[in-house]
Amino acid sequence: MSITPPSPDRALASREARLACRTGQITGPTANVALGYVQGNLAILPERLAADFLRFCQLNPKPCPIVGISEVGDPRIPALGLDLDIRTDLPRYRVWRDGELVEEPTDIMAHWRKDLVAFVIGCSFSFEEALMADGLGIRHIEQGRNVPMYRTNVPCTAAGPFSGPMVVSMRPFKPRDAIRAIQITTRFPSVHGAPVHFGDPSQIGIADVSKPDYGDAVTINPGEVPVFWACGVTPQSIILQSRPDFAITHAPGAMLVTDRRNTEFAIQ
Q1: How many whole angstroms separate alpha carbon 88 and alpha carbon 149?
Q2: For 125-230, CATH number?
Q3: How far apart are CA 86 and CA 55, in angstroms?
Q4: How far apart are CA 190 and CA 64, in angstroms?
Q5: Is residue 39 helix, strand or coil?
Q6: Exposed end of the chain (fewer CB within 10 Å): N or C?
Q7: What does each C-alpha distance from 8 to 23, 80, 86, 130, 256 come to in angstroms?
């Protein structure tokens, strides 16, 4: 199922953005939405798998930096937003059964259970504000597309039943701008931090950078290099390989907007 492309006017505050998702006004990518506020990837699993997944995230902090966890069966995460409801406040979700994607709803009220635990994982959309503030263009925002994301051949450290390859997001820059982007994003380890690779995509198992596994392809101009950051879509790659009987994630690019500020997560 396709998702609605981003609107040109994304200057929303965090609560307004969540309400827009809750009421179906935003159903697609959240890049450039509610600038200044932390966005998060989502993974929801049954309680019996939660400890192993938490351990997986702790062992793989680049792709899976945790910024919030719910209590068992509680759709709220007050530390991320007092009125936040994890069941309705993302633009679009993915429902998985035995590792197979079965549905992409705009809310998960019908799928919520008392044994579920929600994990919110840092998102690279959060550091894009700092890149743009330094004058660096973000190609997927400029072109009105979802960020391109790729499954790699870089293995994550396994934990319990969870194992599989890292997913990365890509933004192209001229070499001098790529160096600056590395310097800036190093200050944001809670939202993936510095890139994991730049240059030749084949070195991390990407056969064709023009064909992302998730999101949309973007233009790479002559003289630019692709720069790859660890991505919070990695749990979806892990679900494909580990095949838990039930899981819910966000649709790639369609994030949870929190009330936390990006500046809270920056290392000065």
Answers
A1: 24
A2: 3.30.2040.10
A3: 22
A4: 9
A5: strand
A6: C
A7: 19, 26, 25, 20, 19
Listed by start position, the domains of the chain span 14-123+243-262, 125-230
Q: CATH top-level class for 14-123+243-262?
A: alpha beta
**pLDDT tens figures, 132-160:** 999 999 999 999 999 999 999 999 999 99
Long-range contacts of 76-84 (CB under 8 A, 24+ apart): 77/118, 77/120, 80/38, 80/40, 80/120, 80/256, 80/258, 80/259, 80/260, 81/14, 81/15, 81/18, 81/258, 81/259, 82/259, 83/15, 83/18, 84/18, 84/256, 84/258, 84/259
Give me the amino acid identity at 214: Y
Interatomic CA distance for residues 55 and 59, integer angstroms: 6
Instruction: Enter the pTM of the model.
Output: 0.91
pLDDT tens profile 205-225 = 999 999 999 999 999 999 999
